Amino acid sequence: MTQFEKIALAVEELRQRRLRKSTASPLLYRFLWRLGVAIPPPLFQSFLGAAVVHGLWIGVPIGAFLACWDRRLAPVGATYYGTIAGAGYGLLMATYLRWQARRLGLPSWADFPEVMGTEEEEGW
Prior knowledge:
Helices cover 72% and strands 0% of the residues. By secondary structure, the protein is an all-alpha fold. The chain has one domain (3-114). Helix 4 packs antiparallel against helix 5 (76-104). It starts with a helix and ends with a helix.
């Protein structure tokens, strides 16, 4: 099974659990998958992986905006504030995603297809 087949299977599993499309496969992740980046869906990511992806998603645009908006901040101040904003948002999102994954009883990404498919294969 390729990584993208595994991603499609994971998204389908989340959709079967009645999660919205925006939760199972957010726009950022669908964009990255189209670019060929094979990262797991957000609810299957590790804490650090989710913190980095979401932190960069917010921190880089905020830093760029601040660098363009207030020339006195550029480049050190814009980088500083962008990093603080990205780190804060990344940590909050990673905490929320790990909490929701535990609530749903999702396995780790490495164990995903084997753990989720065992009951169906045995006929339970």
